[in-house]
C-alpha cells in the first residue's frame, strides 16, 4: 500500500513542508529510514537523525525548526508520537480489512452472523454460534457450540473458543489462545488415583479486552470465569477456573493465576507472577515480576518477592541480603576477638 504526504497530512490534520506528492509504502525508525519509508521524530535525543535519514516522509512536532538542510518531507502536527500511533492504527485497520467467507470452512446451519464478517479458510463454527458485525476470524479458528462473539472482534489464526463461552465487543484475541478448556479439577480417591470433576461452567470475556498469543483461560467448574472490561493480557498467561479479573487490569507474560482467585480493578501484574487460589486481590494493586502471592491483598498494595512482601520492605531486606557475607565475616571476627579476650 502506498500513501502520499497529502493523504497522510489529511488523516493527521498536519501541515506539509516539502513535497506533497512524496510516497511511502513502509514504516521505519528514523535512524533506519530508507527511500519510500515513513518515520517520525518526537524525542529530541534523535534530532540528529533527521538530517541524515533517507526516509521520504517524517512526522514532527509543529514547533520543530531544522538547523541544517534536510532531505525528507515533513508533516508537522501537534504531537508527533500520538500522530504516528494514530497512523499505525489506521495502517493496521487497512491491512486487516478482509471480508467474505473462504473455503474450505465449516459453518453450522443455525449460525447467526452480522454484516461485513471475514471467516478464514479451515475454520469451524459450531451449532447456534452468534457472531456480530465487522468480525475478523482468521484461518484455523475453532468456535464451539453456543459461542457468542460481539461486534468488531478480531480472532487471529489458531484461536480456540470452547462451547458456551462469550466474547464481548471490540476484543482482540491473538493466535494460539484457548478459551474455555476444562479447569484443573480432580478429586483424590482412596486408591491413589484421581477422579475428574466435571467442568460445566463457561468463560465470559467483556468488551475491549486484548489477549496475547498462547494464553489459556479455563472454564469455570460452575458459573463463569470472568475477564472484565478493558483487561489486557500478555502472551502465555494461565488463568484457572472461576478466576475473575477486574476492569482495566494489565497482566504481563507467564503469569499464572490459580482457581477462584478474584483480582480487582486497575491492577498491574508483572511477568512470571504466581498467584495462589481462592485469594482476593484488591484494586490498584502493583505486583512486581517473579513474585509469589499467597495471601489476600488490600487496595493499593505494592509487593515483590516470593513469598511476596511489601515493596519497600523487600528492598530493605535485599540490601541486607547482599551484605550477608560481610555481616557473617564481621560476626566471626567479633567471635574470635571475644574468645581471645576470654
From TrEMBL:
Family matches, as InterPro entries: Hexapep, Hexapep_transf_CS, LpxD, Trimer_LpxA-like_sf, UDP_GlcNAc_AcTrfase_non-rep
Enzymatic class: transferase
Coiled coil: none
Catalytic activity: a UDP-3-O-[(3R)-3-hydroxyacyl]-alpha-D-glucosamine + a (3R)-hydroxyacyl-[ACP] = a UDP-2-N,3-O-bis[(3R)-3-hydroxyacyl]-alpha-D-glucosamine + holo-[ACP] + H(+)
A GO biological process held by the record: lipid A biosynthetic process
Pfam families: Hexapep, Hexapep_2, LpxD
Keyword Repressor attributed: no
Residue ranges constituting the UDP-3-O-[3-hydroxymyristoyl] glucosamine N-acyltransferase non-repeat region domain according to the UniProt record: 22-89
Active-site positions on this chain: 241
EC code(s) of this entry: 2.3.1.191
Pathway: Bacterial outer membrane biogenesis; LPS lipid A biosynthesis
UniProt keywords, alphabetically: Acyltransferase, Lipid A biosynthesis, Lipid biosynthesis, Lipid metabolism, Repeat, Transferase
One GO cellular component term: membrane
UniProt cross-references to CDD domains, sorted A to Z: LbH_LpxD
UniProt GO MF annotations: N-acyltransferase activity; UDP-3-O-[(3R)-3-hydroxyacyl]-glucosamine N-acyltransferase activity
UniProt function note: Catalyzes the N-acylation of UDP-3-O-acylglucosamine using 3-hydroxyacyl-ACP as the acyl donor. Is involved in the biosynthesis of lipid A, a phosphorylated glycolipid that anchors the lipopolysaccharide to the outer membrane of the cell.
Complex and partners: Homotrimer.
Family of the protein in this entry: Belongs to the transferase hexapeptide repeat family. LpxD subfamily.
NCBIfam families named in the record: lipid_A_lpxD, PRK00892.1
Protein name listed in UniProt: UDP-3-O-acylglucosamine N-acyltransferase
Organism encoding this protein: Salegentibacter flavus
Amino acid at each position: 500500500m502506498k500513501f502520499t504526504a497529502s493523504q497522510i497530512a489529511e488523516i493527521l490534520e498536519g501541515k506539509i513542508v516539502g513535497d506533497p506528492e512524496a510516497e511511502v509504502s513502509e514504516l521505519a525508525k528514523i535512524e533506519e529510514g530508507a527511500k519510500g519509508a515513513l518515520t517520525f521524530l518526537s524525542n529530541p535525543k534523535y534530532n540528529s537523525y533527521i538530517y541524515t535519514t533517507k526516509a521520504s516522509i517524517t512526522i514532527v512536532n509543529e514547533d520543530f525548526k531544522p538547523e541544517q538542510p534536510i532531505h525528507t518531507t515533513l508533516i508537522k502536527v501537534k504531537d508527533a508520537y500520538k500522530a504516528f500511533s494514530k497512523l499505525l492504527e489506521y495502517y493496521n485497520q487497512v491491512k486487516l480489512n478482509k471480508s467474505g467467507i473462504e473455503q474450505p470452512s465449516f459453518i453450522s446451519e443455525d449460525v447467526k452472523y452480522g454484516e461485513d464478517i471475514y471467516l478464514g479458510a479451515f475454520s469451524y463454527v459450531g451449532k447456534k454460534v452468534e457472531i456480530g458485525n465487522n468480525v475478523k476470524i482468521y484461518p484455523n479458528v475453532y468456535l464451539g457450540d453456543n459461542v457468542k462473539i460481539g461486534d468488531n472482534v478480531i480472532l487471529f489464526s489458531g484461536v480456540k473458543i470452547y462451547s458456551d463461552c462469550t466474547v464481548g465487543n471490540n476484543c482482540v484475541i491473538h493466535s494460539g489462545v484457548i478459551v474455555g478448556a476444562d479447569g484443573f479439577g480432580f478429586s483424590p480417591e482412596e486408591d491413589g488415583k484421581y477422579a475428574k470433576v466435571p467442568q460445566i461452567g463457561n468463560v465470559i470475556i467483556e468488551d475491549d479486552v486484548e489477549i496475547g498469543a498462547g494464553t489459556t483461560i479455563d472454564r469455570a467448574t460452575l458459573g463463569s470465569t470472568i475477564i472484565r472490561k478493558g483487561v489486557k493480557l500478555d502472551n502465555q498467561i494461565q488463568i484457572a477456573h472461576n478466576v475473575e479479573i477486574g476492569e482495566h487490569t494489565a497482566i504481563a507474560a507467564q503469569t499464572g493465576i490459580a482457581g477462584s482467585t478474584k483480582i480487582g480493578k486497575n491492577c498491574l501484574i508483572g511477568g512470571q507472577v504466581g498467584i495462589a487460589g481462592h485469594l482476593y486481590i484488591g484494586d490498584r494493586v502493583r505486583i512486581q515480576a517473579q513474585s509469589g502471592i499467597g495471601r489476600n491483598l488490600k487496595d493499593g498494595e505494592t509487593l515483590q518477592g516470593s513469598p511476596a512482601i511489601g515493596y519497600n520492605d523487600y528492598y530493605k531486606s535485599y540490601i541486607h541480603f547482599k551484605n550477608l557475607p560481610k555481616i557473617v565475616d564481621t560476626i566471626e571476627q567479633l567471635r574470635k576477638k571475644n574468645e581471645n579476650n576470654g
